[in-house]
Design a protein that fits this description.
The protein is of the alpha/beta class. It is built from seven helices and 13 strands. The chain has helices at residues 14-23, 71-82, 104-107, 109-119, 150-165, 228-233, 249-265; strands at 2-6, 28-34, 53-57, 63-67, 90-97, 124-129, 172-178, 186-188, 193-195, 200-204, 210-214, 220-222, 237-243. The structure holds manganese (II) ion. Residues 8-9, 39, 96-97, 110 line the site of manganese (II) ion.
Length: 266
C-alpha cells in the first residue's frame, strides 16, 4: 500500500511526523507538504508562479519533500509527479495542530488537501487534533494543555486499515477530529456550526496609515446533537463524511415548487 501524506502546518510540523510514523507500519509513505505553515489557506492553488519541490529531512532523519505551494498544490504534485508511476492508495492530510470542525472546513488547508485528493480520484482523509488554546490569556499562570498527537496517529492507522476493507465512495472524503487525550468513543457525525465572531482590529502604523488584523477570538460552537462539535465537546473521535457537492437539496426542492407556482401564476 502507498500513502501520500501532506498537511497545512508545514513539512516540519510535529503532527505530520506523528502521522508518518504511524502509517509507516502499514504502508510505503511519501511525505510532501508545504515548506512553511499554510493554515487557513483553504483550497487555494498556485497558478501564476512556478512551484518548486525540494527534498528535506524530518526530525526523525527520514526523507520528505517540501513544496513552495499550498496543501492542494502538494497533493497535485505528489500524485502527478512524485508518485506518477505508482499512484497512492490514500491521501491523508494532517495531523492538523487544532480542530477542523463546523465552518472551519471552509477555511481549512488540511481539509482542502483531502478534497484535492478526492478530485484526483484518490480516497482521502483529513485528520486533526482538537486542541485549542488561546495564546493570549489574562492569567499568565494558565498553561496550555499538552498537545498529544498519539491518539490521532493511532486512529489514522486503524482507519486506513478499515478503509482498505470498506472503500469510500467517489467524491467523498472523511474529516476526522480526535481529542488530544484518551477519546471517550467514536461518533459518525455531520458538519456542525462553529462561528467565529466577526472582528476587525484596526491599528495605525508608524506612518499613521491604518492596517488590520482579522480573526483572533475563540469560535462559538452550536452544540447540536450528532454534530462534529458536539462529539469533540464530549471527548469522542468525530468522523464526518464530507462530499464535494455543496448543493442544498432540500432548498432545491422548495425552490422548484416556488418557481413552478410563479410560472403557473404568470
Ligand atoms: Mn493547520
Amino acid at each position: 500500500m502507498r500513502i501520500l501524506i501532506t498537511n497545512d502546518d508545514g513539512v516540519q510540523a510535529e503532527g505530520l511526523l506523528a502521522l508518518k510514523q504511524a502509517l509507516d507500519t502499514i504502508a510505503e509513505v511519501t511525505v510532501l507538504a508545504p515548506d512553511r505553515p499554510r493554515s487557513a489557506c483553504g483550497h487555494s492553488i498556485t497558478l501564476h508562479k512556478p512551484l518548486r519541490l525540494v527534498s528535506v529531512t524530518l526530525a526523525d532523519g527520514s526523507a520528505a519533500w517540501a513544496a513552495s505551494g499550498t496543501p492542494a498544490d502538494c497533493v497535485t504534485l505528489g500524485v502527478l509527479d512524485l508518485m506518477q508511476h505508482a499512484p497512492p492508495d490514500f491521501v491523508i492530510s494532517g495531523i492538523n495542530h487544532g480542530p477542523n470542525l463546523g465552518w472551519d472546513l471552509t477555511y481549512s488547508g488540511t481539509v482542502s488537501a483531502a478534497m484535492e485528493g478526492v478530485i484526483l480520484g484518490i480516497p482521502s482523509v483529513a485528520l486533526s487534533v482538537a486542541w485549542r488554546f488561546r495564546l493570549v490569556v489574562e492569567d499568565e499562570a494558565v498553561k496550555p494543555p499538552p498537545l498529544d498527537f498519539s491518539y490521532a496517529a493511532a486512529y489514522a492507522r486503524d482507519l486506513v486499515l478499515h478503509l482498505c476493507e470498506h472503500p469510500l465512495p467517489a467524491h467523498t472524503l472523511l474529516n476526522v477530529n480526535v481529542p488530544y487525550y484518551q477519546p471517550t468513543g467514536l461518533r459518525v457525525t455531520h458538519q456542525g456550526i462553529r462561528r467565529y465572531p466577526a472582528k476587525l482590529d484596526r491599528r495605525l502604523d508608524p506612518m499613521g496609515r491604518p492596517y488590520y488584523w482579522i480573526g483572533g477570538d475563540d469560535p462559538v460552537d452550536v452544540h447540536e446533537e450528532g454534530s462534529d462539535v458536539a462529539a469533540i465537546a464530549d471527548g469522542a473521535i468525530s468522523v464526518t463524511p464530507v462530499q464535494l457537492d455543496l448543493t442544498d437539496y432540500r432548498l432545491a426542492e422548495k425552490l422548484r415548487a416556488e418557481f413552478l407556482h410563479d410560472v403557473v401564476q404568470v
